[in-house]
Each structure stands twice: as C-alpha cells, then as structure tokens.
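Archive maintenance. Older records in this collection stored only the sequence; we are now back-filling the structure field for every entry so that each record is complete. The fields below show one back-filled record exactly as it appears after the update. Entries are processed alphabetically, and Aldo/keto reductase is next in the queue.

ARCHIVE ENTRY
Title: Aldo/keto reductase
Organism field: Saccharopolyspora mangrovi
Length field: 329
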Amino acid sequence: MTTQLTTRRLGATGPAVTSPGLGCMGLSGAYGQTDDDQSVQVIHAYLDAGGTLLDTGDFYGHGHNEMLIGRALEDRDRDEVVLSVKFGAMRGPDGAPVGYDARPAAVQNFLTYSLNRLGVDHIDVYRPARLDPNVPIEDTIGAIAEMVEKGHVRHIGLSEVGADTIRRAAAVAPISDLQIEYSLLTRTIEDEILPTCRELGIGITAYSVLSRGLIGGSGAVGGSLPHMPRFQEGNREHNEALVARVREIAAEKGATVAQLAIAWVAAQGEEILPVIGVRRPEQIASMIASNDIVLDADDLARIDELVPRGAVRGDRYPSPHMAELDSER
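Back-filled structure field:
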C-alpha cells in the first residue's frame, strides 16, 4: 500500500487539489460530540500527509468550524492550503435552519466574517450552500465574481443545484466545481447534473461519500443522524444490509468497505473528487489508502449489480430540506 494522496483539478478553471479532500463539518459536532484539540490534530494529520483541500461552511457549528480551521492553520503556509467555503445558510439561536440569504450584499457580509474567522486574506473556492429562491443565481454569482476581481476569492463554486441553474451560473462567470452528494447509495446526479457539468468543464466535489456513516461506519447514530430518513427504523437495517453486499469485494481488494466506497466514487471520473469527513487523526491514513484500490470495469459492474441504483430506502434529508434542494427538482 502506497497510501499516497493523488491530485485532481476542480474543473477546467479551478485549482489543483489533493484527493480525497477533507470535509470538516463533522469536526464541529454535526454527528456527535467532538474535542477541539483532537479536531485540530485531524486537520494537521491531513496536511502533514500532503493534503491541501479543506472544505467547510460558515454555518458549521455557527462559525466554530471556520475558527477551528483558522486555529489549525496558524503555523501553516497559507499557499499550501485550498479553502472551500459554503455560505448563505442561516441559523437561529437554537440551531434551527431559518432559510438562505444569497443577496449580493449578504455575499460580501458572509465573506467578511469568514475571512476573519479563518484568519486569511482570501478564500480559494466560495459557493452558496443552496439556491436562494428569492435571488436569481445570476445576482449571487455576479456578486462573488466581484469578490474575485478584488482578490478576496479565487474561484466560484456551486452546491446542490440542478442542471438549469448550473448553466445560468456558468453564463455569468467560470464555475470551478459543484459540491453535491454522490455515493454508492446516492446516484441521482448521473441523470442530468453530472452530464451538464462534464459538458461545461465543471468539476464535482462529492460529499457524503460514505452516506453519513451508513457505509463502513461504526453503527453509532448521533448528532443530526436520527432525523435523517435513511437512519430511521426499517430503513437503516435495509440500507446497512445493502452495503454489506460489497464486503466480499472489499476483502478481495484488501480494503475496508469504506475505502471501497471512496474508490468507487473516484473511479466514476477524473473530474470527480471525493470529500471525506473524519473525526480521528488515525482515520486519515485509512482515507488516503483508498487511492490504492484499483477498480476495473468488471469490478464496477459487479458493484452495480450488488448495490443497484435506487435500492436505498429513505431520502437523504428530511422532507422539508429535500423540498429546498434545487438539485432535486
């Protein structure tokens, strides 16, 4: 096992980054209690292994995640890190979602706070977390493009939007990548969204590659997971049994089921970058080792047969959140 990170580019116009990227949301309590010192160690372990891409959102932990990353980067070379930040999701004091704000004035405001919390002078990829139904995507992307011109942002990304919105956004300014859920259990982007991104030279940063722990997880359900339909009674048991079907293939490859699932996403195309969330430093090496797994056409066909598209039970988010997703329309 070489356990080496590889490099992929985020679309035709985006930065080169290491694969897999490190998703930081889970370091701020999204899936259960965390320890800040250990979380910083996770980020350091990834960077020390040669990793470059850190993915976050200004609403993760109500700003805690950005401050955590800022702490982890205090003694690091800023130019060796690619920061991908989502903005626009609003939260109340109790943590409950209270909508989205992607107005041009809000773009500047959110960006200012992110730069301060992260302790940097620019963000490498900046993206609205969701489509604001009250603001044309052209206005939001135009506002980020102004921040690119002023040097506060390097590249523009999108998140959880459909093919039509992708085309409208790309007509305003170059789009580096679309961040969207993609995994063995979630493959709806293959219909229209993935072909559109390929046509336009837009990369895919795939999140929830391990389906929030359904694939290769410990079985523990904390944080927001009990509210997720796929983890609710009946669905969880079905989905875990579905994933168990690929254990034999993973064993043949000398890998874990989680590593196989990461390798499967990476094998779907060079323009697709898996973003993986881990919570313990020792998990970094295991994540990186997924790059050593080679899946040929026969392997991929066998996996498709064992885990057919659409076989998962339950939506990926509760129904109110699903209704807000432009990517699901």
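Update note: The first strand starts at residue 6 and ends at 9. The chain has a mean pLDDT of 95.
Entry marked complete.
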